[in-house]
Design goal:
Radius of gyration: 24 Å
Oligomer: single chain
CATH architecture of the largest domain: 2-Layer Sandwich
Largest sheet: 6 strands, mixed
Number of strands: 6
Shape: globular
CATH topology of the largest domain: 60s Ribosomal Protein L30, Chain: A
Length: 177
């Protein structure tokens, strides 16, 4: 008798759990999430995609510190890891601002670093950090995102030493700074 009651009790719990899961999944299925793409005609990918209050930015590369001069036959100069990180984070900051966000809204960052030929092919983590710490963990902007940083063999741009992608969330409770 006791085993039968335990068996019935366990089955009743499973039936209740299944009912709760069915109700919650049907209310989730009825929920609508807004998706908006940030696109320009020059790139084959979206600059970013809003999903609800979350913005996913595609990987960003540095702008040239010195543009190419075709008349002189000189290529563009992009600088070292620190210079490229500064340029890339400045671009990300501008995109976030356009979208009503700030660097403090960045919750996740993925950093892809190529080994610097001037450093024997090793990644320049101190160069990354020198620029990164100007944007995150400062007196004016104390927030730091969760972050992954990794060395990769190469980036799509042959001159690139740094590519950064971020995820930012618009928080209704955030105080404007």
């Amino acid at each position: 008798m006791r085993k039968t009651l335990m068996y019935l009790n366990a089955n009743l719990k499973l039936i209740c759990l299944a009912s709760i899961l069915t109700l919650s999944s049907s209310s989730i299925a009825g929920a609508q999430t807004t998706v908006r793409h940030i696109q320009d005609d020059e790139r084959p990918i979206a600059t970013g995609v809003w999903v609800g209050d979350t913005l996913y930015l595609s990987g960003q590369l540095a702008s040239p510190a010195t543009p190419a001069d075709p008349a002189k036959g000189t290529p563009a100069v992009y600088g070292d890891t620190e210079a490229q990180t500064m340029s890339t984070l400045t671009k990300i900051q501008a995109t976030l601002k356009t979208e009503g966000l700030a660097m403090g809204d960045v919750v996740m960052m993925h950093v892809y670093l190529v080994g610097d030929p001037d450093k024997g092919g090793k990644l320049d983590f101190p160069g990354l950090m020198a620029a990164y710490t100007r944007f995150f963990g400062t007196k004016d902007q104390p927030n730091k995102p969760a972050r992954s940083a990794m060395q990769v063999a190469a980036l799509a741009a042959p001159w690139g030493l740094v590519e950064i992608e971020v995820i930012a969330v618009k928080s209704s409770g955030r105080l404007a700074k």
